[in-house]
Amino acid sequence: MGADSKPMTTSARTEPTAGAGPFALLPGILVCVAITGIAMGVQAAEERALDHPYIEALVIAILLGIAVRSAWVPGPRFRSGIAFSAKQLLELAVTLLGASLSLGAIVASGPALLTGIVGTVILTIAASYGICRLLALPARMAILVACGNAICGNSAIAAVAPVIGADNKDIAASIAFTAVLGVLMVLGLPLFVPLAHLSDNQYGVLAGLTVYAVPQVLAATVPVSLVSTQVGTLVKLVRVLMLGPVVLAFSVIARWLPADGGAATRPGRLSLTRLVPWFIVGFLVLASLRSLGLIPDAAALPMTRFAGLLTVVSMAALGLGVDVRILARVGGRVTAAVTGSLLLLIGISLVLIRTLGIP
Fold this sequence. Notes:
This protein is mainly α. It has 17 helices and no strands.
């Protein structure tokens, strides 16, 4: 078997072919776009039937990509475009997400709750990472699971992954198993209202601190009350604002992360571009412009939607680089890690609600 016919592996970093022109990238990109179209169609069908997309297009795309990869190994003609979609398009999506965030949400939440949210995110990341490592998950996958649970699920995983150099299989496994728990959270979290004797306001805080995505917060709180929905959405938005600082922190920490199955990598010469990747700079610039009112709603909404579309395309590309047999080997440990981290987050959130005396 020649070099050109060698199957794609999940252990290799997803890098586009050096010097590949736009026409060389097109076949692989079109495959990813086709999968994206199917995934978004499935999500639209969910919304019509159930009012809320319990399984988002992002998750559907990565699962479809894995399914396609199980039946067909992309050849050399498609690899550069798939690699470009998985890396460069994902980085562009992270940049554009900055336009959806306003720092005014921090001020609106109040200093006590703000401090509690920041503390909850930091403590959850640290404790979740510890749980994952105790279950023998690789360091990068442990970070993805921890950030996904602590901040905003799939979006956090997608944003942190390129900074720490995560493998396709780590990203796919983290997103797939986190997505399952996310759906269960939406369905089961309202049970805490009677079980923990929570008020509508307290339940809104709990939902905002624990549910992964903003649409899922709505799905988990709308059946309870309008107050829960308003409070949950606000807390969730403040929690999402932690994504920028966390990604920036991991861009520094990544230099000391252990290689898969090996010792810690020796830090090379520090450069500004390695310390702060271009897409994180772009994210922070757009978030600042949005906070100053220089990006109006009319412009922010299309940018956010385009970022979401690019993210789905990237997830399709990541799925196309994943061998399902590898996912099967790590599935049990990832499920245990995600579940343990999520239970920990719920516990921390309940303690915070009681400690702050939230009515």
